[in-house]
Fold:
Amino acid sequence: MDINPVTLNYCDRQLEENFRQDYAKKSIRQIRFAIFMPILVYFLVAILNYTDIENEFSSREYMNASLLMEFGIFTPLSLVILLFTYRKNFAQLTQTALIVGSIASSIGFTIIIGLEIFLSKVPVIAANYNFNYDYILMNINTALVLVTVNNYAATRLLFTNAIFSSLLTFIIYNITCFYFIHPTSVRIIISSDFQLLVANLIGGSAGYLMEIYLRRDFSNNALLEIEREKSEQLLLNILPESIASRLKESNKTIADSFASVTILFADIVGFTKLSSQVSPVELVELLNQIFSAFDELADKHQLEKIKTIGDAYMVVGGIPEPRVDHAEAIAEMALDMQAEIFKISQESQQDFAIRIGINSGEVVAGVIGKKKFIYDLWGDAVNTASRMESHGIPNTIHVTIDTYNLLADKYLFEERGIIDVKGKGEMQTYILKDKLAIN
Structure:
């Protein structure tokens, strides 16, 4: 995932948007701490100023004006931004709010310079206090260096935003000095500029490398998430979601008993003969087309596909989540399968026929073994459904009396009579024809 080496933005806009949202969400506690700290500093400075009220560089008027700015402007502004972080849409406005706070702090400190100069020109105050411009500049410079470092470290400004805020701080400071400070303080201004530039160089380098690391970590996690989703989807193509979740949580054998389910087996008639008439590639493509259509029908009727063996297809209703209409869902699936086979036969110009067998009863379903997992069914009901398919008639839906009893009042059947079923003996079976019309 490409990153612009100058702006550090992802070339993928959606990824950039996701990163900014994630960055804002993970940074919220640190941002609140960074906003709260200036408030604490203002209180400490106020205490120190008042304990040093008689020093030769400060006047009571200056202290009062300074306190007015600190607690009348800076503190309320910090509190507003702090409260703003609790808004639901703060993640979208995080960087804007932090830039505003940073620039406001820089302007506030430079206002103090102007305030000092203004008071130094008031005759009454100037007569009693010796204003030392170098002292003023050094104090303000220290504050602005802290603001600059704060931009790159504590507030979690993105690199380009931190550069913008810090350079604007540098420009504001120098413009203020140019208009207000006495020429004799040029040496101090140059020294202050050097310190600010060094703070930007060190902070910018650290911020750049840190953001590169964070962005690469985010993109790597995004790639891992994509691969995890692919693996998850692959697992869900093999196992039902509830079974996959249980298997991930525990390596114990999964075997659940179901009192009543309906099983369907389907077999493509004449497929063995067809395999000798077409190439293996064409054969697989046809089989894939048929089974893919059956898979869509299984999803449509919310049934669980169990497996395919050669040209045989197995699906069941009522597992892994029990449902009272499992027999109806399988019946609808069987009728749709007949219609789908007819459609594919027409399109491929192949004379396909399908034989379907259905039975209802009790089964055990689960996952056994340690490799190549498959969700499978066991029980006499499964064997009987398979016998219904193998003893069925092409293009018919052959069902047992157990399934017939569940569907007799909703579907049209034709009695096939008593037939001899291998391994089961004589059984009464039926042919499902269609769904009864609702009056």
